[in-house]
Amino acid sequence: MKISRLAVRLGQVLLLFVVGYYLIYRNLVLNWQALAEQQWSFRLWPFTASLLAVAVIFALNSQIWRMIVFALSGHRLKAGRAAYIWFISNLGRYLPGKIWQLAGMTVLARKEGVSAVGATASAVIGQVIHLLAGAAVGLYCLPAGLGSTFAPLARWAWLGLLPVVLILYPPLLRKILRLVSGFRGRQPVEVNLKLGDIAVWFVLNVLVWLAYGCCFYYFVKAIYPQGGLSLAAATGVYAVGYIVGFLVIFAPGGLGVRETMFAGLLTAALGEVGATVTALGSRIWLTLAEILPVILLLVVWGLPDAGRNDPEPGRQDE
Fold first, then answer.
1. Which of 49, 76, 204, 226 is at a distance of 20 to 30 A from 307, taking alpha carbons?
2. What pTM does this model have?
3. Count of domains in the chain?
């Protein structure tokens, strides 16, 4: 345990070095004159519209997870409660490690009456399908000119998606769920999961990632309108940068890693200074898109467990 904690701390120190040196010192401080000479023209309306659109897409994404919960557990969550669970648990990404988001989603779903295995499986499967769809969109949309540095990695990344696809094959997935439930000392889980279900969830997540890319495109235009970034390129940059930031386990919320990826991929289209400023601004943009819905949901529903009892076993929300 001590070794793993030490590894996390070393990773976080390295992360601070990358952010401090590469993004701030190398790209901004050393290019301060070029930064001052840029004709910056921040556009409020595209920024606000893209921010609100991302928040809405987050909410739609929570409803895809709600569909997965129903398919795996037979429990029909209310749309508002599904959004509440999704947004609150999403804050767990800002803690070191990636299990807190899934753990929070599982705990809150169980308090709504979802079975333990169903809650855990829906959280994990929903995340896997979301990342798989994002990786496919990112690798397809990212132009060779922007991703030239990562071109060899991108070629191998396609091969890395194949094992994930196999795991999602319904007969194999059902066996995995039965095995996991057996390890937990529970009655083996039987779910009527079909290949069509997986396909629908995957397609919906592809549409979500395409919508994210569109929002990111207008965010870039709000920050740096003179840049020559296409809609397809923006979609690829967002998907690849976001997923890489998510997969680096020692970076809370992808902090530093995501911005570094954005800056590196955007440099060809926006220039070094424009790409760095845009990458750093994206942290504020996405954080606001995550926090504002949480504030609204907390006003409506309150803090988790505040005045709310666990539902009776087997109770179904209509």
1. 76
2. 0.80
3. 1
Q: 223 is in which domain, residue-wise? A: 61-301
315 falls within a domain: no
Residue where the block lists tokens 């990344």? 157
The contacts of residue 204 (CB under 8 Å, 6+ apart) are 64
List all residues 6 or more positions away from 144 whose beta carbon is below 8 Å from its beta carbon: 151
291 within some domain: yes
The Cα 8–Cα 130 span in angstroms is: 25
pLDDT one digit per residue (tens) for the chain, 318 residues: 455 555 555 655 565 556 554 555 454 544 445 545 555 677 889 999 999 999 999 999 999 999 999 988 888 999 999 999 999 988 877 766 567 788 888 889 988 888 877 888 888 888 889 998 999 899 888 876 565 555 556 666 666 677 777 777 777 777 776 666 555 555 555 666 788 888 999 999 999 999 999 999 999 999 888 878 899 999 999 999 999 888 877 666 667 778 888 888 888 888 887 888 888 888 889 989 999 999 988 888 887 764 454 444 344 443
Residue 185 maps to a domain: yes
CB atoms within 10 A of CB 270: 23
- How far apart, in whole angstroms, are the C-alpha atoms of residue 80 and residue 69? 14
Backbone angles phi, psi at 189, to 5 degrees: -85, 130
